[in-house]
């Protein structure tokens, strides 16, 4: 007779044999077997080292199953169901039995994403039969929640870059993260001074992404600066910050400006006149030309001559100054300023900007005759001429009688 423990333990389950034989005579041996099942109710315990799982990392948790005889262990989430006893796989998710601990089942999600977040259910069941064939058994389950987290990210884009002076430019800051970051801070930085842009609007694109935009109207070269987008979210009490910054390029076809000092339309002989020829553009102009009819005062090409002490360069301008001392009547002329810059390997010309200068002087009148002692009845040519001032418009020859 064999007496089971009280209460019986499932470890005592198994096949029992009763053997009888004559003393020393094997051929008269008789035996009977019986299968004893000492069933225990199943239980499931779920454990995870972390419930907040970062985007792209591996999520892992265990189901520890007890009970006898266990005939089914599954893990399910939404439409996903894995047979852990068979070690099945679905996508990046696997469930396998720990070979060193048969009651432990390990569930892994190799590359965790927002789609894998949610409640995972671990279920176990026992099944056995009574001697009359009646099926017996129980089932149980337990769940664990895996939360998807992603540190905030910011991506800044422009709908036009480069843009031209006068354009409308839309800045977009795409924000991603879980929990969803708040509204981003969009700033522009010029000469180490940052200014926050206002008027942005935000629209959700996915459960973990939104896009916030702001618009720059009628841009000019002052908008040719750096722009930055800053965002943050909080994960397990820790602030996760991110930013992105880019330069907006505002291009300007070259513009020629010609000024003179003094600005009078008419200048006296012997006075001085200063011209300033300025070529503005972005990219910085590479050519400048200042001339008057028939005479080139300055022709500059940075690609061929490099720096020139007579040319002043700034961020967007080339400038040349020409002073004419002691003006003469011959300096009356048309003066022209022009230049060029190159954009995308294509040259763009500014066209001509013109100043018309008139040099004036006092009028000098002279008179000559073909003879001072003419004979009676002969012909005498009398020439009266005037030089100076504006072009003389009235010459009178008077006969004083």
Summarize the structure.
With 401 residues, the chain is an all-beta fold. Helix content is 1%, strand content 61%.
Task: Describe the protein's architecture and organization.
The strands form eight sheets. Strands 4, 6, 7, 11, 14, 16, 19 and 20 form an eight-stranded mixed sheet that branches. Strands 24, 26, 27, 30, 31 and 32 form a six-stranded mixed sheet that branches. A hairpin with a 2-residue loop joins strand 30 and strand 31 (346-349). 20% of the residues are buried. This protein is mainly β and 401 residues long. The chain is rod-shaped, with a radius of gyration of 49 Å. It contains one helix and 34 strands.
Q: Please indicate the percent range of residues in DSSP E strands (runs of 2 or more).
A: over 45%
Oligomeric state of shown chains: single chain
Distance between the termini: 176 Å
Low-confidence stretches: none
How many H/I helices?
A: 1
Q: What shape does the CA trace take?
A: rod-shaped
Output the radius of gyration: 49 Å
Secondary-structure content class:
mainly beta
Number of strands: 34
Main β sheet profile: 8 strands, mixed
- Determine the fraction of residues in helical runs and give it as a percent range: under 10%
What is the mean pLDDT?
91
